[in-house]
Specification:
The complex is a heterodimer. Chain A is mainly alpha-helical. In chain A, 56% of the residues lie in helices and 0% in strands. In chain A, α1 packs across α3 and α5 crosses α6. Chain A is elongated, with a radius of gyration of 25 Å. The relative contact order of chain A is 0.16. By secondary structure, chain B is α+β, with helices and mostly antiparallel strands. Chain B is built from twelve helices and nine strands. In chain B, the strands form three sheets. In chain B, strands 4, 5, 6, 7 and 8 form a five-stranded antiparallel β-sheet that branches. A two-stranded antiparallel ribbon of chain B has the order 1-2. In chain B, β7 and β8 form a beta hairpin. In chain B, α8 packs antiparallel against α9 and α10 packs across α11. The mean pLDDT of chain B is 90. Classes of the chains: A mainly alpha, B alpha+beta. At the A-B interface, α1, α4 and α9 of A face α3, α6 and α12 of B.
């Protein structure tokens, strides 16, 4: 066999192997993609190969679509009221992959019917519902609830406002543990989307909270949304 | 100089080869596009969906959410019968929606059109509503739209007129009428009875003032601008100076004047807040319409305007 033939044969074999490898990786990706959507969200979270695949798909998507609000490190942005996605505190639902996916699909107060739009935190100060001193008292009560330094007398007044004039208990509950059905955060965990210092707490009560998150259905594919949900779920449940 | 360049420079007949090749490839691609069979309809439900209705999918996630809402159970706890019922309902709804599209309901049904318009406006307004104004912004908005928070004033008054010149055959000269009116004003302010002054100087009721109380805008409408301006300066029990109008010399007697009252900002801040947000929403929807108009091709028939 001549040199030319040998050279041709080995090149052909190399190309063939390359094609086989490419086809195999394509086939594998397609299989994972289908499985990602076929399985129930809970089952996806338990499948390591799927979680790895989804995370790889999701990272660039997160950087492109989510990082602007939630930060590249996923730890949120108090200035925008965007929550930290690396902890296990959830405004809506219990942080299951299914709940995260629902939020991704339709958003929060996005204008879509299926979006989370159950309640708003009223602007208590701006609207004149509470006075400034009442709001300051509520802030002291919140500090007390979270084991932070507080003024005893003001905190007692704040508790009265919390139960009474402020009607805070209606959404956040008498024990202030919140209600994930309509996005009322737990006020006892010292996790604050709009900042933790007393002035930020005051501002949140004074000006209210009406944050929005867009729904991604229609912009991203189902597979991309499932991948993002899986990624966020994995990050939040591994720290 | 490379070989290719040499070919093109010195072998002109070969220069046609590349364009010809390009044309051939182009034709090949076009032919493939034209003759390629249409995408085949899906024969199985793709992953992530629970059903396909005329190739339109129902999301598995939506199905699960609907089952949980309707049964008040977790999806896992819902019985197969319950799930089947919900799925049937969702399929029925999808069929009706698709039928609605075939019937072109947005074109023919006011309710559908209106709800679609509301839906779009809601989406446009969503980001605007996320913005919480500051106190200063609210105050500025209040100052700018103070009229909204002003309770209208009201007046109870009499309007006497002394016709002059040829008007209704009055024989008084203007100077005489003005002098009489000045005297009448003096007497009225000194406590003379209205009826006495009317008889003594020849005044009549102008018929422009209502018998009872009227809101400011109605007083303005009836008295006319000139007399209304005078009326707005009078307090309870005051008598105006003589006012010359087109039909004679008038005297206004203010019995009761309730001045317009602007509500204090703190008293109406909740209303101001809601109005601020409504105004922001309206601005957003107007901007959206402006954008849509700028992108649309709108032709209006001759003789019509929009």
């Amino acid at each position: 066999m001549g040199t030319k033939w040998k050279w041709g044969l080995s090149s052909g074999t190399a190309v063939l192997i390359g094609v086989v490898i490419l086809a195999q990786s394509h086939w594998r990706a397609e299989r994972l993609q289908n499985r990602l959507l076929e399985l129930a969200p809970e089952a996806v979270a338990a499948d390591l190969s799927l979680v790895r695949y989804a995370s790889n798909q999701a990272r660039p998507l997160f950087a492109m679509h989510c990082a602007a609000c939630h930060g590249a490190d996923m730890r949120g942005n108090p200035a925008l009221g965007a929550p930290n996605l690396t902890d296990d505190v959830w405004l809506y639902g219990d942080g299951s992959l299914y709940d995260i996916e629902r939020t991704l699909l339709y958003g929060i107060r996005s204008g879509a019917d299926n979006a989370h739009n159950e309640a708003d935190m009223p602007a208590f100060g701006l609207r004149g519902i509470l006075t400034e001193s009442q709001i300051r008292a509520v802030v002291q009560y919140l500090l007390q609830l979270n084991g932070r330094p507080y003024d005893v007398q003001a905190a007692n007044e704040g508790r009265a406002v919390y139960i009474g004039a402020g009607n805070c208990a209606d959404c956040h509950g008498p024990d202030a543990r919140g209600n994930n059905d309509y996005g009322a955060p737990d006020l006892t965990r010292n996790v604050w989307n709009s900042g933790a210092d007393p002035q930020a707490l005051y501002r949140a009560i004074y000006s209210g909270q009406h944050r929005i998150m867009p729904g991604w259905r229609g912009t991203l594919t189902l597979e991309q949304i499932r991948a993002l949900a899986t990624y966020v779920y994995t990050v939040s449940h591994s720290t | 100089m490379t070989r290719v360049v040499r070919i093109f420079l010195y072998r002109p007949q070969r220069a046609l080869m590349l364009p010809a090749l390009a044309v051939f490839v182009g034709l090949l691609v076009a032919g493939f596009g034209l003759l390629r069979p249409a995408p085949r309809p899906l024969l199985v439900v793709p992953p992530g969906y629970v059903a396909l209705i005329n190739q339109k999918g129902i999301l598995l996630s939506d199905f699960r959410s609907q089952v949980e809402t309707e049964t008040s159970k977790s999806f896992a706890d819902a019985t197969p019968t319950e799930r089947a019922r919900v799925l049937r309902e969702m399929i029925n709804e999808e069929l009706l929606v698709q039928r609605g599209m075939v019937l072109d309901l947005p074109e023919t049904t006011t309710e559908v059109r209106s709800n679609m318009a509301i839906g779009v406006n809601t989406q446009v307004a969503a980001p605007v509503l996320a913005y919480e104004p500051t106190d200063a912004e609210l105050r500025a908005f209040y100052d700018k739209t103070r009229d909204k928070y002003t309770a209208p004033g009201a007046m109870t008054l009499q309007d006497l007129v002394l016709h002059v010149g040829g008007y209704q055959n009055a024989d008084q000269s203007l100077s005489q009428a003005l002098a009489d009116a000045a005297e009448a004003v003096y007497q009225l302010r000194s406590g003379a009875a209205v009826d006495y002054v009317m008889v003594h100087f020849g005044f009549m009721r102008s018929g422009r003032a209502a018998d009872g109380e009227e809101l400011d805008f109605a007083v303005k409408l009836h008295l006319g601008d000139k007399l209304y301006q005078v009326a707005t300066t009078l307090h309870d029990g005051e008598v105006s100076e003589p006012v010359l109008d087109w039909d004679g010399v008038h005297i206004l007697l203010m019995q009761r004047h309730q001045f317009p009252k602007v509500a204090d900002f703190t008293a109406v801040r909740d209303r101001v807040y809601l109005d601020f947000r409504t105004a922001a929403t309206n601005r957003a929807t107007e901007e959206n319409l402006k954008l849509l108009r700028s992108q649309a091709d709108i032709l209006v028939a001759p003789g019509q305007s929009q």
